Amino acid sequence: MARAATSNPRTKDDTDPRDPAKDLDSEIAALREDVAAITATLGDIVKYRTGEAKTEVRKIRRRVEREGEEALEQVQDSFEAAESELKASIREKPITSVLIAAGIGYVISKIL
Question: Does the reported pTM lie above 0.70?
Answer without folding.
Answer: no
